[in-house]
Amino acid sequence: MNLSRGQLQAIVDALTVLLPARSPADVELSRFFREHRELGPRDRALLADTVYAALRRRRLLEHVTPNATPREIALASLVKLQGVGISQIESTLNAEEKAWLAELKALDLDSLPFPIRADLPDWVLERLRSRMGEDEVLDLARGLQRGAPLDLRVNSLKAPREAVLDRLAYDNIEASPARLSPLGVRLKEKPALNQHPMFLDGAVEVQDEGSQVLGLLVEPRRGEMVVDFCAGAGGKTLQMGAAMGSSGRLYAFDVSDKRLANLAPRLKRSGLSNVFPQRIASENDPKVKRLRGKIDRVLVDAPCTGLGTLRRNPDLKTRQTPEGLVELNAKQRAILDAAATLLKPGGRLVYGTCSLLAEENEEIVMDFLARHPEFSLVPAKQVLERQGVKVAGSEDYLHLYPHVHDTDGFFAAVLERKKGK
Question: Which of 8, 300, 354, 364 is catalytic?
């Protein structure tokens, strides 16, 4: 494939917009495409692949390019990360660019310093290396540098997984059962599914397999009162609603009108009648206080750095900071405390994040348990194995990693309010 000057310039223009990381990369890229409707589907796919490859390896590319301009980063990404031959873009290069790209092509990346190979911020590496060996950190980092697969969750109210796999095979969409989640299907490629009959009917939803496993820890039952405290666009809300057989009451709380608006069409497709979306101003909203002591199960998918999702959101490496982590820790503690007040004696509280940092995970849980003796930790392994799910490396807590489980990075703890307290 030979790249035209126009294609290369579009990639450079997109990187010029995205590299400052003023807002999420997917939002910026969607806006860019809306403003450049002349780009065809193949051009858009090439542009998106190159931009995300560059964001995943930004630290490397800034290290090996002369001035780290958007054009240099685009060229280096194409040649070094995506395997485009210099001859395929030769007509777009000047003599100086040809020379340094030839040197870059021959560069052994394994000879570079550890932080460049890991391609994570120093403050993140410092925290990971405090509890992992350097080789394990590098394996994790390389897992985060790869693109994420496309996973679906089967809506058990609409179809069994076998029927979904059969229909995908009939439509020549290569797919297989997920390794961990009994509800999961993994696609080999990334076809557009938004007009597929199973998607339109709500038989399947796009949801990372790791997110599905986290949702299984709640283990909601028919007829119960359940709260998804930070529902977002509602992937785990819909999963729990189906597990409840569309019975009982499932409150989907979130502080964002926009995120709850995104839940609305998904909820309609799902066929669920037991989900009640509720916008709350904060964890201390009166809507929360009215439910104190009445709830059987609560899921807190807490706001976090999102570092476990770097395969999908590589711009977070630039947008998150140590100072922001401190603010998130305070918010995580406050939300967990508020969510705990909702539970009946014997009720279950699942705290989860898509973070890799102990400060957002184990340390938050241990602090909570120290301040709330009425709660105890239930081993995550025990809850999952009851559902026929085995996750390597998960005992007391759920730990999911891209380099081990080929999912996004997730953490979760299962907490139970002691009976009579």
Answer: 354
Supply the CATH classification number for the domain 209-417.
3.40.50.150
Written as one letter, the residue type at 96 is E
Q: Give me the residue spans of the domains in the chain.
A: 5-112, 150-206, 209-417
Q: How far is CA 215 from the centre of its chain?
A: 14
DSSP 24-37: -HHHHHHHHHHH-T
- Can you read off the two tokens belonging to residue 371? 């301040």
Predicted pLDDT of residue 421: 65
Average pLDDT per block of 10 residues along the chain, 421 residues long: 88 96 92 94 93 96 95 96 91 92 94 96 96 95 96 96 96 96 96 92 96 97 96 93 96 92 93 94 92 97 97 95 97 97 97 98 98 97 95 94 96 93 65
Per-residue model confidence (pLDDT) at position 288: 92
Find all residues with CB under 8 Å of 416, minimum gap 6, and list them: 346, 347, 348, 349, 375, 376, 377, 378
**What pTM was estimated for this model as a whole?**
0.94
| Predicted pLDDT of residue 2 | 80
Query: What is the rounded distance in angstroms from the CA atom of residue 366 to the CA atom of residue 241?
Result: 29
Q: Which residues contact 291 (CB under 8 A, 6 or more apart)?
A: 225, 227, 251, 342
Q: Both tokens of residue 60?
A: 């490397």
**What SS3 class is residue 302?**
coil
111 alpha-carbon distance from chain centroid: 31
Distances (CA, A) of 416 to 3, 230, 390: 58, 19, 21
**What CATH number does the domain located at 150-206 have?**
3.30.70.1170
Our answer to whether residue 354 is catalytic in this structure is: yes
- CA distances (Å), 101 to each of 58, 87, 107, 393, in order? 17, 11, 10, 42
**All residues at 6 or more sequence positions from 357 whose CB lies less than 8 Å from its CB, including other chains:** 124, 127, 128, 305, 307, 325
- Residue 189 to residue 17: CA distance in whole angstroms: 28
Predicted pLDDT of residue 323 = 97
Question: Which of 176, 254, 238, 179 is closest to 203 using CA atoms?
Answer: 238
Which of these, 161, 245, 151, lies nearest to 203 by C-alpha position? 161
pLDDT of residue 1: 66
| Rounded Cα distance, 412 and 391, in Å | 12
Q: Are 124 and 358 in contact (CB under 8 A)?
A: no
176 has which bridge partners? 186
Please report the pLDDT score of residue 242 as a whole number: 96
